């Protein structure tokens, strides 16, 4: 296990001053405008692509199909490459060459053809299905042309209203890797019926206000009740963030199934849909159905929303689910819905009794709706989907208006990245409807389907380069509902297993107010005015800037820091999105401009990258080929790609190509796109020339880092010589490293010993995106003289972040040295009764978040001190040495089991301190160990003196503490230590979040709000007159004997650490402080609701609403 040290503030990288550099202030507004323009350009490409597919589809559907009498053959993804004993394709199957492609989820694909995926509920022999498969085959040339013109395009597809899914490039289903492709088992993995997905429904229809009326009378039992519930669930599955809905159960009275949604329509986000679905479980049929009451209730709430400007202000509908009404209730419809029927009525007659069919049919057909009779579960899906076709009719009848729809984000397939982590990536989808323009014998208005393409969020983030934002800066995108498309604190609850098995996206509805945590919030979801103003402006697609102090958590919500950010935002025109940038005030507002010219350099710049002791950021784009046929996949590493382009830059005729292709105007979307040259590429000239300069500056790191002479004036070499002279070589130094602003990591191994731990370079290649890099900067902003430090370059009075230099130590060697120091008497004392080695004292080194870095008990390492001794931790908080910071998690996962957060649930099977240290202490950049002797001597002196001599220190007395059982934590501790007993040998288990890594798809787990109290060191409290003087305290009246328990705390100079010495002789009780997030209950303050609805937050409606056409009444079916 290892620990890490970052460099003193006084050591600067002198070589930067030997080259042409500048330190400039960032202009956030110019930066955001440039980045928003680039993102808009990329999104225009995607929208142009789907519009061309739409045009082609509508034309292809008009072309008559020739019938040559032969059975029609097509590429069915489920029947590919299955061979008989003779080696030929088996009956009913076809052969297709498939090649693995990292751009398409790393799956084997065919970029010359599309394949058809058929949900299990679709009859492929249906004439309508066969006809649509046949004409949609003509989309392949358009798919190919789009991909050649824009090789960054992901999957393109056509979802037919007949129920099949044509996807390009062609793929077998279920997809398999090459090792099993030829003899794969027939797995039971079917794609979902996409016609209920947001990309399909929201493209085919305008937004909707829906009231669902569910008959809950005495006859609705057994099979009928189950059918009703399935119908409701299916309707809810078709709704999304732009829709509003509520469910009313009715018998003799009518009331909401979710009391929280009384007298309102709830936004159909994933959270509210889950509550509505759950509410159907507990219905208890009784009495006789009062249809008049139910219909009036439905009309009244829709009328209220229409008149007051609430809801979607577009389509409105009532869904009536019953086993039969006694009449048509014409008077109710005449009163509320005549003459133009603004509210559509969709009726679902369930069960075998068809005596009320006539009444149900009249209700629907007289009110621009649709009537369905459902007896069996397999009939539900198709019958519910009819309402989408009906609501799409006005849009189809106008013919020319094709609204483009962008979905919320979801976790899709594997990312095309050099990172080892190739799990699900964030995606969004852009889609557009396809209309039937054919002439029919009767008037129809059919949606033929929806075409679209998936867009990787990583492709968007490439256009907002992290190096331009600087360390601890970040970008995010907000849509018209205030929900984020991406954000560094977005933590999707669902993984991508469902998507990989069925292609069904699980959409994310996380609001901006749930990821930007205001520092001084008063309570959960008590949003700050400035944050709400920022959100409002971004939703309205305004340009602007603001400032906000926020809390930032990390290390799986076990640590926290506070930061004041400048926010800049700008609309992405032509989309529902706005782009935002957050840049820390102070150090974040300046950047270093320092590049090494490459093209005309006298030296071959690849010489700066010799050896294998360097890495570049795997996710940053230095240079890349932009043609899909360039062989980009043959670069195995990001370093190989960088070297390739650096070598190529030396060739005659080299051009930087630092501008990405410009998108065609949308009015020209019907033009065939231009195929890119197979060697087309893009290079970020600023980034790669900065990388070369950083490589030049750090080149000598590995050359004799421990010279005893100072002829080598290289600043890093000089630093290491100084460290050696102070005795650092005896502390188990194993590695030195430097990470720079350009994403370069370079290291030197200082030992040949092999360990079981991963090498530093395996898990720390992301430079400024690494937690230790970010913490170094934050620590410097608090204490500029700290050894936990970020190197700055100064020019013309301005300072900008440049790099982090660090050292890796063997933790065991360092801990052993700590024990040697703390086991001795202080200077000048020949004998002493108390040392840290004795049973009378416990000694700890804690970091700035209260975690134990070093302890006499090795098993304490990496744990939160409040769990070891919460009483002392409380004392440190009371005297403002640590500040308690409440952090709310609005993306939490909770168990439905009330007692889930028990001690037993929080134990881990085997405590592995080595793994814990690597994951945890690595992020706690280390102290200057030579300061320890001084600090320990001072602290130990305190323990040897009588109480009346302790007044020479900054003294504070703690408030009287209760004794025994009273001080045991009331918040469900993991394990309670024995009452009235202080047991230094008691070791609580390592505390981990029981919901961490839990798949939300598992039964019994639900989203929830959670709260945890975290801690931040207040160094000013321990720095008096520039000196790190110890403070002492004592616990009094904590035991029946009246004994006292003193302790001392002192800041370790130039670090983010403190030394804590605790007397153990008085057996005071010790409570525990938990840093496991606990669920926030709103039930008592929120009308019985377990959650706090977000529906009151501002949102902007989609720009187009097409819900009426004067001739729609002519269509009879």
From TrEMBL:
GO terms for cellular component: voltage-gated calcium channel complex. One of its GO terms (molecular function) is voltage-gated calcium channel activity. Its main location: membrane. Residues 209-388 form the VWFA domain. Pfam families: VGCC_alpha2, VWA, VWA_N. SMART domains: VWA. It is found in: Membrane. Keywords: Calcium, Calcium channel, Calcium transport, Disulfide bond, Glycoprotein, Ion channel, Ion transport, Membrane, Metal-binding, Signal, Transmembrane, Transmembrane helix, Transport, Voltage-gated channel. It comes from the Eukaryota. It is a single-pass type I membrane protein. Gene3D superfamilies: PAS domain, von Willebrand factor, type A domain. InterPro entries: Ca_channel_alpha-2/delta, VDCC_a2/dsu, VWA_N, VWF_A, vWFA_dom_sf. This is VWFA domain-containing protein.
